[in-house]
Amino acid sequence: MKRVLAFLVFLFVLPNALAEGYDLPLDSLSEWTGKKAISVVSNVPDLDKDTEFLALLGRLSVRGFDVNFGRSGFSDEGLVLEVLEVNDKIAISIKSADSQKYLLSTFVDQAQQATSVTDFSTSPQRILPLPAGFNPERVEALPGSARADSRLIFLSNATLALGSLKDGNIQVIDKLQSDIKNSKAIYLSIGQSDSDPNPEIAVVWGQDRDISGKGQYTKIYSQLFEVSGEELREETEKTENVAIRFINNQLHVQRYELLAGDIGKLMVASVKGSGIGAGEESSSLSDREIFSVFPIDDATRISVAESYLELQSPGGKPFPRLELGRVSLPRVAMPLKERKIVTTPDYAYSVNEQYLSIPRKVMAEEGEVITFLRKRRGAFAGLTSASGSDVMVSASWDRSSPGAGFSITPIREINSFVIDFSYVITGDESILVVLANEESDSQGASHIYIYSVPSG
User: Fold this and answer.
1) 15 lies in a domain?
2) Would you list the DSSP string of 191-235?
């Protein structure tokens, strides 16, 4: 009993004190410089039949670890993965074989793990195929109007498209082709920076480039478009080495000169003629990254990273995080100032660049955010098929006590990998539009999931 109590106290002071299933963060393993071997020790029955646990072992193998699970012998070097039943929970830890260094320690609630997320939505689900050869990476809904259809903007690696959602079908009305060779979609946002009634579209594309024998970097291009009737029109020329985004309906800009490793301050954009420039600093947001910050009001904002979001107060401590599961695409490359040499028993190689992931979308309103949890697991090396479901969720907090954390309400489970989503109100109907793909790297077939909920 004393041993269990000591372990409980130790768990409480570590990050990620409560996990869901075996979807564990493994970034801490990068700190390990010893033998890349892991032995599994467990008293959990039928663990070898648990597909989620086997997927965890697959992730460890991908990271270069030789996993000893069910084989005879136990190494006194390397790491130990302990999976132990403690009352009604499973205690999981990854530690050095001599127990002198802990890299991960957490609890899994067995009852919670065995129960799937409840779907609170009673509205019907519609799954709409997209036109052949059309594989968007981003989606935004245009503001509602008196039209009978809903208008959507899609951004793919090579095109910007205006679409119509009507009578359960999606049609492409107009599209513009990127003239950037091998471009890839980075970000899409909608707002209004001028006085005319036409909605404006801020687009960010990237282009991966090689640095003669020294790795890669991503060249960033931004451009402003507008919707005029049934047409997409260019409002500005392409601007290099800057990223743009509408934040609370105001266009912002940030220098993104990744070849030089230079990401500037977040500024309010200045549109003059056909060019996009920087105006004044964006007050309390100037030190933030343009794709990761979602202001709530003057006092609070949501900051989103690759695997979590957190509520922040400018100048104050961040409040508790909400773990979302890792989503790493799209991402951009930036050269390292000093390359790293990685050695293994068999070979050595150099790492010349670092990758910055563009965070998933968060729709932030006063006291609530809508986003998605990455719960679905990809297939592993032909041995397992994709499993689990991503989950659209609403996360709220008590404004009088934000330190208490988030209250989570599941909206929908989706048996595909969520890429992006948008939310539009047309007449008396609220529509959640979810863009999903059969593959985690967006290389499979894309679908649109539609959920209609009466607003009153």
Assistant:
1) yes
2) E--SSSSS-EEEEEEEEEEE-TTS-EEEEEEEEEEEEETTEEEE-
Position 285 in a domain: no
Asked if residue 26 has pLDDT above 50, the reply is yes
On average, the pLDDT of the chain sits at 81
Distance, in Å, from the CA atom of 139 to the CA atom of 187, rounded to the nearest integer, reads: 10
Checking if the pLDDT of 19 tops 70, the result is no
Strands 89-96 and 79-86: antiparallel
Tell me how far the alpha carbon of residue 348 is from its chain's centroid: 31
> Which are the contacts of 11, defined by CB distance < 8 A and separation ≥ 6?
17, 91, 105, 106, 107
CB atoms within 10 A of CB 216: 17
User: Residue 400 — left, alpha, or beta (φ > 0 → left; ψ -120 to 50 → alpha)?
Assistant: alpha
Q: Assess if residue 350 is contained within a domain.
A: no
Q: Which residue has the higher pLDDT, 441 or 245?
A: 245
Give a yes or no: residue 396 inside a domain.
no
- Domain that includes residue 45, residue range: 2-114
Least confident of 59-63, 207-211, 302-306, 367-371: 59-63
Q: How many domains does the chain have?
A: 1
**Which whole-number Å values give the CA distances from 292 to 64, 222, 247, 362, in the listed order?**
30, 17, 11, 9
Count, residues in the chain: 456
d(CA 222, CA 269): 12
Residue closest to 59 by CA, chosen among 20, 25, 107: 25
**Are 367 and 255 within 8 A, CB to CB?**
no
Write the CATH number for 100. Answer: 3.40.50
**Tens digits of residue pLDDT in 69-120:** 865 545 567 898 888 876 666 778 788 887 667 777 676 655 444 323 334 3
- CA distance readout (Å), 448 to 161, 258, 287: 15, 33, 35
The answer, yes or no, to whether residue 334 has pLDDT greater than 70, is: yes
Distance CA(29)–CA(105), nearest Å, equals: 12
Supply the pTM of this predicted model: 0.72
